Batch of 2 targets.
Target 1
Amino acid sequence: MTTPDLTRPDRTREAVIIGGNRIPFARAHGAYASASNQDMLTSALNGLVARFGLQGQRLGSVAGGAVMKHSKNFNLMRESLLGTPLDPATPATDVQMACATGMEAIGSLADKIRLGRIESAVGAGVDSISDAPIVVTDELRGILMEVNRAKTPGQRLKALTKIRPGHLAPQAPGVNEPRTGMSMGEHMAVTAHAWGIGRQEQDELALASHQNLAAAYDDGFFDDLVTPFQGVQRDTNLRPDSSLEKLGRLAPAFGRDLGEEATMTAANSTALTDGASAVLLGSEEYADAHDLPKLATFVDYEQAAVDFVDGAEGLLMAPAYAAARMLTRNGLTLEDFEYFEIHEAFASTVLAQIAAWEDEDFCREKLGLDAPLGRVDRSRLNLHGSSLAAGHPFAATGGRIVATLAKMLHGKPGKLGFISVCAAGGQGVTAILEGR
Amino acid sequence: MSRDTYTEFVNTSVGKRLTKALGLPQPARLRRHRPGEAVVRGPVVVVGTSSASDEIAALLLGWGLDVRRHVEPRERVSAVIACFDAVTTPADLSETVLGLGRVLKQVGPSGRVITLYRRPETAVDPAVRAARKGVEGLTRSVAHEMRAGATANGLILAEDLDVAAPSVAGGLRFLLSGRSAFVSGQLLTVDSVNGTLPQDWDRPLQGQVAVVTGAARGIGASIAEVLHRDGARIIAVDVPAAGEQLAATANRVAGTALQLDITAEDAGERILSHARQHHGRLDIVVHNAGITRDKLLGNMDAGRWDSVIAVNIEAQLRMNRALLADELFNRPEGSSGPRIVSLASTSGIAGNRGQTNYAASKAGVIGMVAATSAQLEARHGTINAVAPGFIETEMTARMPFATREVARRLNSLNQGGRPVDVAESVAYLASPAAGGTSGLTLRVCGQNLIGA
């Protein structure tokens, strides 16, 4: 009997980001109103296949998902990959962790590569508000199931006659937290107020996001990251001509019960968006064997969750905890990072997280640290724009951020990049990339 | 692509009878290349008495063709090769040209006439040059007389060039085959012994890497497909705005997509670095990307003029400088080196109303190609241009109906060409077998009378 090589799983190796592709993100009920999740994801994958010449290749795994998902799309990733020129022998997994879906997919695929289970992978995400699933009332569903079980036309007719007009009202999916009934924006308004995040700094962050994204497009930064879809060439949420004066005139959209102290507007909160993204990862051996670039190493990632239900912590503050554990584990501080990509669910989310990491009390009491986690150098934050300008198709955001940061770090060996993505349900993911 | 409903109608039995009775043009369905198919179907007649004619006959026999020196009356032949390489005075033309005339009526549908002669320009003796130049005139006139999709073209050999040079075989085979379906009344020159013949005539670009600009759609997409079919790996380039179609092209030909504005200062470097990273080599560059901004000169503005010049010629000049300076594009393999093929236009030759900017850029391409060939010679490389006439594309489909109908019929084949016809000529000029041809602009226009 041969004994298994027990040393093998411990011998971790590097997982590298090879590149990414996304379709331009479009505001909900706009350019992609008639496109399904599968259409968008297939297009993002096709662009990735074309960029790296992956036609006919069997990849180790394709993983990702959508937050707003039709029940018929139970196998969304697999069905989408079957619409691409990838070898159909490539397996696919659906993942879901709300807005952190893309990050979780990419992180777990990187782990598989590091462990030697697979050589190559695509982490992806897609979301469509425009094609959101509509749920029927429980009463109507009960009747329809009864019709389905009926054996004779008479039984079927009898069941159908039970339908009342009130049963027909569709139950549109909301973005409210099921346990609190509060929208994400209302939750964030509470957190922003608690941390004393001002209106002006939120508007400034939003404006910088638009200006940075517009400049990146103009410089051709996205030429090898974005492939047009249905005639759309740039993110439709992007407002390059925005100004502080214009943003300052907007009325608050969340936390209105705070009156004068309400700070969150439609402009410093991210709009609902449709879109898809994909990131190609591999082992160093895979990248070398297929003449593919190695932009960055996927160093580590960490999940966290907070108890937001009774208000003990803010809904979107989980990344603060994830970052603390991740940095401690790696012996790093926030000062060690060259670039920061903090997902702009709301401008106040970014600012509240940064404030928390600088706050001695919070770091000691909540994060269990001896000293503040550190300062985020604002000149290194979201340098090519982020969700406020690009939009945020929930599951697609991780792929957008990882591909962008990996490209920024390429050619800067050893430089580190920091990622933070918050998610519904009080969850979050942080990650570290290293330039090559 | 627009549909040529008239040609479809003529090729029905009712259509044929009706249009013949009315004396209307008779566009035929052209024989086009299909991999694995014979070069020609039926006998090939070689006329002429020079030693070159014997060598040509031997070459064709080596390809397994049915080669004849004489044919029975009424027997169908697929091609006639008339060798005028030894003429020294106009009186010498008579025997061979009348021999050609006697079999001309026996040339079948999509048949071929190929005249072979020496370059007139290098002859000092007026009688010799007159005789050689005479072949050019008779070739172009024969092309006008061809029927049922048949074509006539000339193969011009440099003064002392051995008939056994690879590009003589390559050129002959191209002109005989369905690859040259829409090439008629044209003269293909062979200047040197450079070039190598392929192991497999169906995969002449096996193992090579080719860049095609403007590959998202139309003629560019067709070029990518034909080069891929011939064995090349494709780097498909187009502007980021055309990225969705570009990805579709790249996926269809199992290549890589490179979203790139070719007018960018570093476009050449970015192509080189993509080729180096993903393919480790670069053998062929096809400058296909181009734009039109038509306007009568009196109404022309700087934006229209400058953008056409920038995209259609300035970008190519800048990219060529970068390509030719790089080691990756400078590796002769055997006697075959790098290949550049540029898209010109018959507009650049004959001019076209409302197209001063476009014609200037395309005539510029013709000049650029002629001048650049010297720079490629040392590395056994070539640069040539292909000048399409009226081709059925999305662009010509937008022309007004009557203008389009006239443009279609004003050539010896009475129809528009297809993108694949342009692509086949590009693929031939990009192949190792065409190494003896450089600095040339080959029209793919069905012998168009004007510069559409």
Note: The mean pLDDT of chain B is 92.
Target 2
Amino acid sequence: MKFIRWIPLTFVGLYLAIPLLATVVYAFSTSWNHTVFPEGLTLKWILTLFQDKEFLLAFGRSVLLSAGAVLLSVILVVPAICVIILYFPQYEKWVKAIIVMIYSFPGIILSVGLLKFYSVTVIPLVAVVVGVYCVIILPYLYQGTKNSLMTINGRQLMDAAELLGANKWYSFRKILMPSIYPGLFVATLLSFSILFGEFVLINLIVGSKFKTLQVFLVEQLNTSGHLASAVVFIYVLLMAILTFSVMQLSTRMKGANAK
Amino acid sequence: MLYSSFRFNNGFSLNQYKTIFLSDYILQSFANSIWLSLVSACLALIIAIFASYAIYTYSEKVRERILIIINLTSNFSGVPLAFAFIIILGNSGLITLFVQFMGWDWNFNLYSWSGLLLIYIYFQLPLAIMLIYPVFYGIQKEMKDAAMMLGASNAYFWRKIGVPIIWPALAGTLTILFANAMGAYASAYALTGSGYNLTAIRIGALLSGDIFAQPELASAIAVLLGAVMIVGMLISEWMTKKMRKDANL
């Protein structure tokens, strides 16, 4: 029965790793069109990329858009989630219903409705995308906040603080926020990485007027393969950093809870 | 969106739907999408079952490491993924060149159904494993030991106890994977532009006006796409219920 252990894993591992590795190698190779192995290694593509104003702008826009949406959610949505979980648990079923709806509406369907509805209003379409992003990451933020509140016994903590004379706003700011912060941070990193890779909505709703990294990448695909793979490399690197920090943080949190 | 799908020349009409059902092209896109999603979901599910089971047999530490890698690859989807496949399997891709170098006769076209299938399986796999993997926790070792003590063979255990326990989770996962593939747009768009006929691609083309924008028709197709997904969910729920009833008898 030993082969059952490693055959599927090797297969999956190779299947998942080969495209990733090939892209990374391609980003560093001088020319790789006629031979099985790259003809030489170079840093040229990465360096070119960092001198490319378009790329830097697109990268900046991506960060701005994703971070903006996440920040907006943390400021506006997370307090609302806290209030619902702590004081109005009977409304939680509505939040859950919204989450199911988010999962069952893929971007391609969503974009049709959004474009139809908002293209006739004065609201700029970029703002619409930010709004939708806030909705898309709701499930992750909700789950992250909820888990944190459960582990620290949020309601009792708030009651205790109020009993000691703190008002609600003060205890939320000084007691609740610091204690759910680690869990929330993991959720925001996760949300950020999801939004960073988003392509459908931004491409269909705003299009080339607001070029993010993903839109930039599609354009590069048609011009230079090496530059495109350099873009992918940087993207993968960023994702890897985000994933590892999420993992690290959550294992540390697990350890803290065990103590 | 629903409202707009019934509009034609500023009046109520079923015209958009008529257009869809009379257009072989759009119907073909639905057939392609459904078939591609179904096949990719099933294959990913089957591979994921074996892989999750294999992961489950390792120690906690190894398991966590494998899951980190899988988590990382789950972020590797959409446009970057399509690009990676062009590098290894495209017209001058790594494996394509290797095959030519070896002089084998091999007609593989990445920009076709089978190429798309490979890519779809790629982004379905991490998701499938992450959804299936916790299911194996549901089958505790004690259950298996107890069944063995009572004289059940390994195959008998899986047929009568293991599979019925994990079946609802499998059906649910299959539905999610199916919906995931039906709604996927970025990879196919980056790979084939509007070349290969998929429903999501059609909607995108009608919206952005690659030919000329027809948002009403796009709305109608989107409504139907949503309907297909809901039907998929209902079928899986119905099958789960039926399985449960059978198990009770």
Note: Chain B has a mean pLDDT of 76.
